[in-house]
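# nightly structure sweep
# worker-07 picked up a monomer target from the shared queue
# config: single-sequence mode, recycle default, output format = structure tokens
# input follows
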Amino acid sequence: PSRPQPCAPQCALPPSARVAAFGWGPHALAGRARRRGAICLPLRAGACTSHMVHQRAARGEVELEFLKASAYGGPDIDSRFPTLSTSSSGEHVVSSSWRVWPTVADAGSTREQPTMSNLQLLRLLGPVAAISSLMNMFMMLEAHIYVPYLYTRVRCCTGEADMLSSDHDIMDPDLVRGLQAEARALDLKLQVSQSDTIEACSVPAFPGSSPMWSLSPHCTNKAYVQQSAQSVIATMKPLQKMFCFFVLPIGGALADGVGRRPVLALYGSGLLVACLLSALDAHVAGAYGNWIVYVAGCLFGLSFQPKDSILGGVIADIMGKDEVSKGRAFVALRSVDTVGTFFLNICVYLYLRTHRDNHYYAWLAFSGLASMIVFVIRVFMRETLPQTTTTPAYSEMFNPFVSQYKAFSLVARDKVLMLQAALTFVFYAYFLGFITTRTSYLTLVGFRMEDAMLPEILATCFVFFFAMVLMPLLPQLGVWHMSTLGNMLFFVGYMFVGPFTVLVSNSGPYIASVTFALAILLIFPAFQTIVSQRVEQEHQSKIQAAIFAFGTLGAVVGIPIYNKVLFDATASGIDKARCPLVSMGLSLGCALLSLAITYTARRVEPPGSKAEKLSGQQAPL
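# output follows
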């Protein structure tokens, strides 16, 4: 039409629309849009809709991707995000097609937005959910593959140089009786002193099928194997977290400037290098020393906080400022992560049951998984950062001190974010501190190495159900209460996995795993949503990275304490539960701090909202 007509309210383009087709071939494009779960609006449907889209494009509320219309109705990509063209008389070009993507201003509209179903939400996230799930699998390595891999590297009692002192003699009466019974059943020699102790290196080499297997083919003293592996973790994990501390501001700055997609691809490549280094170390049986473990461990850290900070920015790009939608999106990602983790846990459990002396082929398999991550990012993921905010990379982005200082300065503007950073520090100290000792702790209280995974497998069976129930309840629950409830659930979980397991029953870890699963489903989306809703669009990844940087500092402090001070492979009685007992106290403190943050957030507005109100007051009528 040559003259746009006045638009009725129902003619406005819905904020949830992801595709709009105009001009040539509207029926073909409409079918394609419906197959993608989108809304297709043809230009010929009326001047009202087309004029509204034109106005919103001019205001920057939507971005238009030009699709060249061919004579056969098959659109091809011609160029990226041009301005909507019109003739000199004001007529719209009707021989072209357009795809409309909502920007942050559109997604954060104050108008009531239609609620998407859980399936539509997952379909919208698409490759982002797949990338999150694949990278989340690497987080499971530290608890499931990495610790058994470190066990196999421990050597002792094979020569004069690695003989153990009397500090590692076995004196626990229950353990001594168990070793004696197993030795008699297998017709193995075992010498017990008159004081009912067993010398550290006099334990026979039990086969892998035995419950008294020492976990390493090169050492017969199980306690020494566990203590040595935890000592390596106590060094490797702080190095990993310090590496992440410097990577986070650089990755956040690049993601907010260059784009989310290239940074995620770089992180995926880092995981591939880590797997190849671990495969090399397993192939040579640790002959090159621990430096390979430390380098690979640092690179594995890219699958945790650095990845989450970028995905937080991606969700903010897609969902805008709507707190409920972002919260549901983060929970949806956790749900997809859980599905992938469930199948991974089954495979790893079956693999660990074989009690292999070398994990070379396991690392090669994970190298293939890392390659798949890079492939999905490069081929299927679309850049979500609006073109209007992209900038070329410059030298200051690669300076972690400058980037971290700027990010911390942005955090310091908001009292709520400062309290959230303190909460994140304590949370990661107790959460990762216990996680890094979990496998050794469960074997200490009587679990076989592979059976330590069974509680995790049980938990993943419940998480997907929890997520489906939780997402519709988010508007009533709210992200602030999610954080408090998550920390309280961690408190309950540590109570079951700690004192209940040691004093009452080995069913404690199974009950705790379900509690932990629900807590994780609540607390990580809550952390990301709280930060996202109090931060401007151009600072999303930087401040997400800054908050996670506080978490890395907490891990640097907490992990050595848990692995070198609290964990003791020779402990007996309630002393075995020192790690979960400390986590109980810290999680309760975090729950109280979360209540204080909720109280403060209701009285302190985000800095960005203050600026928006001020600019709105100064705007001309």
